[in-house]
Amino acid sequence: MSEYLPGLAGVPATKSNISDIDGEKGILTYRGYPLEQLAAHSSLEETTLLLLDGELPSAHSLAEFDDQLRTNRVVKYHVRELMKNLPATGHPMDMLQTAVASLGMFYPGNEYLTGGDSGENLDYVHNMTVKIIARMATIVAMWQYIRNGYDPVAPRSDLTYAENFLYMLNGQAPDKLLAKILDVCLILHAEHTINASTFSVLVTSSTLASPYNVVAGAIGTLSGPLHGGANQKVVEMLIEIGSADKAEEYIDSRLKQKKVIWGMGHREYKTKDPRAKILQGLVQDLMSTRGNNVNPMFEVAKVVEEICEDRLAKKGVYANVDFYSGILYTEMGIPTDQFTTIFAVARATGWLAHWREQLKDNRIFRPTQVYIGSDVRA
């Protein structure tokens, strides 16, 4: 194939049975299960095991996996000391990429990544996956204290994944409702077929690089505003608009200048992102439990979405997953610049599921190019 397609649009990069998207109908499934059902009835721990192993786990397997995640939350003090020496003003995604890459030095384990049978040792693959998923949330929460000059809060093994993250982030017993909402948010962000960061996973995995470097590379890819960084941009946009009555003028001005409306549009969906629908419902539920004390950003967001649907629906542009997630994170007390690190914490599950799948039938990626340079010359 010699045809050049910018961004490899529509070009299959792999075969996978992990997740699937019907962009016309707005359907996303994990291993065949509709996302709406998992958000309503599953937990992050159960959904993680589903994505990794291919089937919903038994109660025993789930309890065992949950225990493994809990007992692997602690990181060595060397990681903490490394983080203390990073610039406090640096972006949390740069910190996370650095810290995750460093884990390979403190927790080595590449002895099985040697050849064609690298994916056969399932115990190795599982153990490395557990260590990375368990520690990424710890690292993100630790940074909130370290960058402000304090020692981080130690993780607790008596809390769920979402509860422990909020506890480490705020140093207080987690609000059960907020922990449940965070659990759903993590499920929604856990996997999404071959997006840019997951493609990065495939390429890096194919070289038999360590899983720490695989995930670190994916974190770097996710950090861009056209990928995971968009949720931070949405909140900044809503704050800039300020009030619902100013939304129309702002949106029309952006469209006239052909500028991006953050949180709007997705290459895969021609209707509203199913994850955005769930997130919007979570915001509404949260506000109703607080006596309809609505976050002003939510009111602005609803108006912005209505205006964008009026202007852009005919082009198949609707709200995506980034549009409402930042509002929820704000309500949890999470700083704006940490939004994308939470995306990374969630997406680590999907990344590592694809890492495992790539190892099973590995071939190093080596695409070609269309050369448009000079002819041979002296």
Major β-sheet profile: 3 strands, antiparallel
Structural class: mainly alpha
Q: Which residues form runs of ≥5 with pLDDT under 50?
A: none
In terms of DSSP E residues, the strand content is under 5%
Q: Explain this structure to me?
A:
With 378 residues, this protein is mostly helical. Helices cover 56% and strands 3% of the residues. It has helices spanning 35-41, 44-53, 59-71, 77-84, 92-106, 122-146, 161-170, 176-188, 196-206, 211-222, 230-241, 247-256, 274-289, 296-312, 322-331, 339-360, and strands at residues 19-22, 27-30, 33-34. Strands 1-2-3 form a three-stranded antiparallel beta sheet. A hairpin with a 2-residue loop joins strand 2 and strand 3 (33-34). Helix 5 crosses helix 6. It is globular. The mean pLDDT is 92.
Fold topology:
Blueprint lengths: L18 E4 L4 E4 L2 E2 H7 L2 H10 L5 H13 L5 H8 L7 H15 L15 H25 L14 H10 L5 H13 L7 H11 L4 H12 L7 H12 L5 H10 L17 H16 L6 H17 L9 H10 L7 H22 L18
Antiparallel strand pairs: 1-2, 2-3
Can you tag this structure with a few keywords?
378 residues, three-stranded antiparallel beta sheet, 16 helices, 56% helix
